[in-house]
Every structure is written in structure tokens, then in C-alpha cells.
Write a structure and sequence with these properties.
Strand content: under 5%
Distance between the termini: 11 Å
Largest sheet: none
Number of domains: 1
Helix content: 55-70%
Radius of gyration: 16 Å
Number of helices: 12
Order of helices and strands: HHHHHHHHHHHH
Number of strands: 0
């Protein structure tokens, strides 16, 4: 995984400097970052790297808007990206909206995304290290990442204020980081 401040372009490093633990719901837009987000130029934002995959560059922008809790702006971008990764960003946005059934619709379109193995492994480690919550026990032993089960868990936490909420937020943050890193690498043609 890329290091936020060292491996990203200066424009992205500045937008990711503030450490956040995203809420399971829509959150409150980080209005102090709106001007910088709105001013991002797709090509200049990746400098000194050239953009080789414009859809992945747009996916990064969708992720940045989501990171700062601007769900509608993220949605406008992600719904125009016709790929597994675009569908992933779209599904994340709807999960936080919260529109769980729509999130599941978009995760059906994701298929088996390349970040799933790392996400499953890290989620299992986080679940094993956290307090025992019966609702999240499945995370410890699932053989592969199950996005639909995670959507259900997030919904349960949001509706009932479950003690597993912090665990879900930590997993969601790692998921965001993995997906942003993946999108960024693909945008600049890195391996």
C-alpha cells in the first residue's frame, strides 16, 4: 500500500494529510476542503506522474470526495465509471448514504475485486484483536471477503449502535485506503 504523504502526488497528499476515521453514515462534509477538492484538475492532480487510465484517475477523485464526506460529489463521479472499481466506489458511497440495497446492487457489479484478499485478511486481524461481538464473528473466519455480509453488519451497527461500530469503521477505513491505493496505482500505470 502506498504511503499517503510520501508516495502520492502533492495535491493528493495535501488532501489526505488530515487523518480521518470515516463514519458508517453520511458524515458531515469537511467544508474547509471543498475549495481544494473543487479545484482539482485531473491531469495536474497526479503530477509529476502522467495519467494513463482516466477512469481510475476519476475513481481517485470520487474517493477523495467520499473521504471528506461529500457523498453527492463522489456519487456523480463514481456512477460514470464503468468498471469494477467504479462500481466499488459507487457501492461504498451508497453504503454510507445509507442505501444498503443500492449498495448491494453495486457490489454485485464489482465481482471479485483485487483488493478483497488483503481486505479480508486485515478485517480478520482487526476482528480477532477487538472485543468479541457475536455480530462480527464471521469476519474472523471468512475464507474470502464477503461485501454483502459487511454491508449487513454496517446496517446493523448503524441501526442499533452496536459495539462493533468502531470495528466496522476501522475496516471501512482500511477498505478505503486499499481501494484508493489501487485506483491511484492504476491511474498512473504503477504496479
Amino acid at each position: 500500500m502506498l504511503n499517503r504523504t510520501r508516495d502520492y502526488s502533492a495535491a493528493f497528499a495535501a488532501l489526505l494529510h488530515e487523518q480521518r476515521l470515516l463514519t458508517l453514515g453520511p458524515g458531515v462534509p469537511n467544508t474547509k476542503m471543498r475549495p481544494q477538492l473543487a479545484a482539482l484538475d485531473l491531469q495536474q492532480a497526479f503530477a509529476p506522474h502522467a495519467v494513463v487510465a482516466e477512469d481510475m484517475a476519476r475513481a481517485c477523485l470520487a474517493g477523495l470526495w467520499l473521504y471528506h464526506d461529500f457523498l453527492e460529489e463522489s456519487h456523480r463521479l463514481s456512477q460514470s465509471i464503468s468498471s469494477s472499481t467504479g462500481s466499488y466506489w459507487h457501492g461504498l458511497m451508497h453504503r454510507r448514504e445509507p442505501d444498503y440495497s443500492n449498495s448491494k446492487h453495486w457490489f454485485h457489479r464489482v465481482g471479485a475485486h483485487p483488493i478483497f484478499p488483503a481486505l479480508q485478511q486485515h478485517a480478520a486481524q482487526l476482528a480477532a484483536a477487538s472485543e468479541n461481538h457475536p455480530s462480527s464473528d464471521f469476519l474472523k473466519g471468512q475464507p474470502q471477503w464477503e461485501p454483502f455480509a459487511f454491508i449487513d453488519l454496517c446496517e446493523s451497527c448503524a441501526e442499533r449502535r452496536s459495539p462493533a461500530e468502531r470495528l466496522c469503521r476501522q475496516i471501512q477505513m482500511y477498505e478505503w485506503q486499499l481501494l484508493f491505493d489501487y485506483s491511484y496505482r492504476k491511474a498512473i500505470g504503477a504496479t
